[in-house]
Amino acid sequence: MRPMTEAEARDFLAHGTRTGKLATVRADGRPHVAPIWFVLDGGDLVFTTWHESVKARNLDRERRAALSVDLESPPFAFVVVEGPVTISEDPGELLHFATRIGSRYMGTERAAEFGRRNAVDGEWLIRLGMTKLTGADDVSG
Q1: 3-class secondary structure, 16
Q2: How far apart are CA 30 and CA 112, in angstroms?
Q3: Residue 65 lies in a domain
Q4: Is the separation of the CB atoms in 128 and 69 below 8 Å?
Q5: Distance CA 102, CA 108 (A)
Q6: How confident is the model at residue 96 (pLDDT cuts 50, 70, 90)?
Q7: N or C, fewer C-beta in 10 Å, the chain?
Q8: Above 90 in pLDDT, residue 60?
Q9: Which tens digit of pLDDT belongs to each residue from 3-20?
């Protein structure tokens, strides 16, 4: 196993269509994990969520989270992100990032459709500040 540099961890997060597994804490202290689609923007990992979802309620109450992304085939690799979150309902920002996320996961031909579908009242834009990045490559090596 080889530790990743910060630049390698960022490249790993931005590569392809890997799904993140977002970890939050429920009001009663139980953990909650949910898959998310995301993009990077500077020092933030950005995703959207419906304001009434479990993860949204958890993030609104406890403004921090962790996320794991992994390569599920040999030689195996992973990155874990930890940090504070901010929540925005700005329509322009929401449309911009929902479209970017759509482009990454649905392809450029469906990006605008995905952006419009997800940039609606009630959808939140979440920024997870990547204050701690831990990654490893060649886990099975």
Answers
A1: coil
A2: 37
A3: yes
A4: no
A5: 7
A6: very high
A7: C
A8: yes
A9: 999 999 999 999 999 999
Domain extent, residue 70, equals 2-134
Angle between helices 111-118 and 91-106 (to 10 degrees): 140
- 139, part of any domain: no
Residue 41 zone, left/alpha/beta (φ > 0; ψ -120 to 50; rest): beta
How much is the pLDDT for 50? 98
Q: What is the pLDDT of residue 58?
A: 98
Question: E strand or H helix at 102, and its extent?
Answer: helix 91-106
Question: Is 102 a member of any domain?
Answer: yes
User: Looking at residue 126, which CATH number applies to its domain?
Assistant: 2.30.110.10
Segment 54-61 shows an average pLDDT of: 98
Among candidates 3, 23, 1, which has minimal Cα distance to 134? 3
Q: How many CA atoms lie within 13 A of 98 on its CB side?
A: 24
The amino acid at residue 111 is A
